[in-house]
Amino acid sequence: MAAVQAKSISCPNCGGPVELRGFAHTLSVVCPQCLSVLDASTPEGQILQKFQGKTQIKPTIPLGARGKIDSTQYEVIGYQIRRVHSGEDTYQWDEYLLFHPYKGFRYLTEYNGHWNFVHVEAALPEQTQARGKRAMRYDGKTYLAFDSMTASTVYVLGEFPWRVQTGESVACQDFVAPPSMLSSEATGGEITWSRAEYMTGPQVWQAFKLPGSPPPAYGVFANQPSPYGASVASSWSTWVWLNVGLAALIFFFMVISPGHVAFSDHYAYSQGIKTDSAFVTPTFQLDGRNSNVELKIHTDLDNNWAYFNFALINDQTGQAFDFGREVSYYHDSDGSEGSRNNSVIVPSVPSGQYYLRVEPEMDTGSPFMRYELELRRNVPNYSFFGLAALLLLIPPALTTFRKGSFEAARWRESDYAPSSSSGGGDD
Amino acid sequence: MSTVAANCPSCGAPVKFLWSSAVQTTCEFCHSILVRTDVDLKKVGEVADLPADASPIQIGTEGAYQNKSFVVVGRIIYEYEQGGWNEWHIVFNDGTSGWLADAQLEYDLSWATPPPTPLPGPDQISQGQTFQWNGKAFAVTSRTHAHYKGVQGELPFEYWDKSDLMFADLRTTTSDFGTIDYSENPPLLFLGRAVEFDDLHLKNLREFEGWT
Description:
The structure holds 2 protein chains of 2 kinds. Chain A is rod-shaped and about 125 Å long. By secondary structure, chain A is α+β, with helices and mostly antiparallel strands. Helices cover 15% and strands 48% of the residues of chain A. By secondary structure, chain B is an all-beta fold. Chain B contains no helices and 15 strands. Chain B has strands at 4-7, 14-17, 24-26, 32-36, 41-46, 62-65, 68-80, 83-92, 97-103, 106-112, 130-133, 136-153, 164-171, 176-181, 188-195. Chain B has an 8-stranded antiparallel beta barrel. A 3-stranded antiparallel beta sheet of chain B has the order 3-4-5, with no helix packed on it. At the A-B interface, loops of A face strand 12 of B.
């Protein structure tokens, strides 16, 4: 059988030729010369609507352009501008009718640089509730109610498999599950459901091999996928791995390189042996550049406390670093408080010959304490690790915040914009 | 599948049958509508010129659905205010027959089904009404008043003297499809599935100028 021929009619208004791209599917067509809407189902091409405006509007994607979407080549055969009055606002979007002789009709819509590829659905969504909003369940996804409006066709070009007219209006509702959107259109009691998938301008430009660059997208569109959707999860998992690395680093410093022991000794304290418990240690060498010194105190205190006055004194210059530490350890059947050990870090101690002056104090009547002093030179400073852990938190926290702002911008455009709560900011 | 040959009682041209159980066919030369009797073919009417149509399907188109292959043997053509559609009569390789509707390239497969519950009359059925059939809620999505425009090829019943008809289409949340045909009394029920073009694995389709 020979191929089905494309047909053409001549415009009864201006006499110009009108080529048809949609074969016998086309019921109405707009004369490209005089913009009259014609009935294409009869060879005479009866006029359905004369002139729809004075100006010729040039669609961004020209009629007759072909583009590949979802591995199917579609041809643009119709174009509509649809307008919505919402309160004092009026906004409009472009709607292209796409055709493939086997796969059928699809739509491509554009609003402020945001594009959607639309397919009419044969199944019915199920009403439900989600996140306190009216929602629709369809094909395994939950779509949240976004807005409802009355859209009128204000301008048409090309051809349509129905009798198109400007001025026609339909009641529409949108439900979103980015990057998808489920929409209903009610005409004459009949409800048509369609599903849209978000496309970017560059994707459309590539599909239709359009010259130049696409108009930039303004704002956040109802079903625009969040650019932070996946990055929030990945930034937090990066954060977890960086913390693991940090923990390994801490472990390395604690076990492998805990500083160099400059001095250590064991002592006992007993009240009443002598009234002045102060004493000095033998001298020891602190090497290298100005760096820190950590003094660790290990005691055998048991439901008791002790206070240590220390002075780290340079044997040659007499320069002294004074500091003190309390050690207290109490425990009963409910648990314990404090620790038998304590430590102190003295920063920036120059190299040289040093000794420690030690003066322990205890409560009167406390009999006896054994303790050990250990002095390390050049110990890692763990507060840097704490600071690093805090800094690592910034990128994921920022990404999470940005995603929240993006969702807030999305829902500001909704009929169901949250008034107080930070709507839809969660994953 | 047997090919039974006979001659058209009107023009004498050979008439071939793709489906041995066909009750009615049309002569592709003189467009007579022919009904099979026990002995021969009887002319019951004539098909007016078929309206221009852009369905990619034609008689002889082959396809497969859920691993059962089928061939298109006939069709009924309807028209309504928003265009026309074809009910293609398809015969599966196990000898059973069903329908493949092509309404502006939206495709539905269905089979004649005894109504699981009594069907309401044409004036009692309304948009949104639901029926629990086979464990699924079928909701009435449209009522269509249509005109019979013609027939072509082999059909499982006599179908030629129709004019104005009413159909009610039903859908579910899981792509099931149903249609109630009020051309008969009691009405007929067809149940099946909404399908995408690619689901049908069609071969021997019509070709379209400018599309290869």
